[in-house]
## 1
Amino acid sequence: MAGVFSPRSLGEGLSILQARADMRREDLARLAGISTGSLANYLNDRNVPSASVLLRIATALAERLQMTPDELWVGLGGLLGVAELGRGGAMHPHERLVREGFEAFAQGDLDRIRAVFAEDAVYHIPREEFLGGTYRGLSQITGLFSKLMDASEGTFQVELHDVVASDEHTLAITIRRAEREGAMREVRDVTVFHVRGGKIVEAWSHPLDQEAADEFWS
């Protein structure tokens, strides 16, 4: 992704992508399954969309712009103030924190994982997913990660595809893999992180393909 963007809010970034897609607000709201008023509030930064709503808005924009979901998220990250992530630009401290968390998970280092999350952090996984629900506090979050490894008989892996960060939001695009019934399965996810005081305080994880996610643990 070439170029350096001035930092923008989430609403401004989405508004720019809406304009590039040449979509009316009514059409974007319909495709995202929300009211036009709610969309206007998000685009004008009066409210912040949940991760699931943000995912539906981004999916609708990606389809109209003929972009892959990955390209859309990286483009949105650029509009939020990311300068050529991982390609020679300065790394935002929130990006560094999230990357450290994924590295710690890959190494099975629970102490390092605890170091990147706040004591009262909250981690959301869609309820449709295996082990889906809301996990509150370090004990539940690290317990979740341990359960993922146990359920996959130690084969669960997460590849960090890209991270885009601003002062307000950090988005991670990942590929999770696990061996099931002798075959390796994979799903792409996007996780939205909120960081305060140098710690992750809340995260929302959502698959880019719900059907593939449903089959992942089947």
## 2
Amino acid sequence: MSGIINFLKTLGVYASAGPDFRWGFNGHIRFKNTVNTDATTTALTWTTAYLLGGLLVRDPTGGTATDTTPTAVAIVKALGNGVVVGSCFDLFVKHTGSAGEDVTVAGGDSVTLSPTTIKVDGGEVLHLRFVITNVVTPAITVYSLGVQVLTSP
């Protein structure tokens, strides 16, 4: 059995144990999706569970807010075994609040945003891609892949 596992590793395939059972191939990480919801009215630091869950439903409840990603060290640690430069995962942020209640994304330590200002307004869904750029000294670039307007938040 260990021979098969070692062979799969040479191909870039890996799996991690529970509780979330992540699978990966050539750096693209797949995991069990979880919907997380947060209605914090002030600044919020996202957890690694929020990121790895794949969908964050967010409503700053009547105001604007700045949400900060976890640090690159925390994110790489949460990804576990098999993380390599180029590993990536996506997060969707569904903003269920009202128009004008912007949520601005800020990068945690060693997390770079591209573009440097990323915002999502009420009634929109933001698509983010997190790409590992260094695993020895953890670093991540978060790319905004666009915003979609919801027809019904």
## 3
Amino acid sequence: MAGAGGGVIGAMKADDLRRRLDALWRMESPKLLARLARITGNIDTAEELAQDVLVAALERWPREGVPDNPAAWLMTAAKHRGIDHVRRRRLHARRQDQFGIELTLHGADMQGDDAQRFADDDIGDDLNITKVAKRESAPGTWVDGTLAGHRFNALVFPEHAEVADYELGQSKISKLWVQRIADKKQVYHWDRGLDQKATDTTTQAIVDFLCAGLADYVYAE
């Protein structure tokens, strides 16, 4: 009977742990996806690596206990997987290059140090999407949010623009406005073309971060 009771208690603890992890995952997964997309340059790869992190937590936490800072554990695990992926991709690119195959993979020539720099960059950790609203009379979705002490407003689309010059790089963003919260100063503006370039490196990092995966995140469903 004692063994049966222990099994029930163990199952209850496992269920409680899964509920805690599910709740934490709903809050933290957007940040993990954004960081992994920035490291790898590919939202599909980011989603796969994020799932690997979730599986690792499900396997290790019941055995080792929940970390003191579970959110930090998830982010650290995501960074490591992102860096490992980029390094493996770079090694693969080198091997392919030996046979004279020209690679067009995004970031195939990224140095390992570059991957570490993207992982250590704090841009994205405090991403907060405050509003998502689909336009009624035309395609596209307005997205409001805050990031790294800045407020942004973007118009994103599920597909690339028919007129390439209207799109911010390959981001599926046609309009992007960024304001520094501290002094309410506009620090970047794109409206189907560059109206105001980034005023500093932090602003440019924010723009790059949003371009890397905001549209794909909004239309992930």
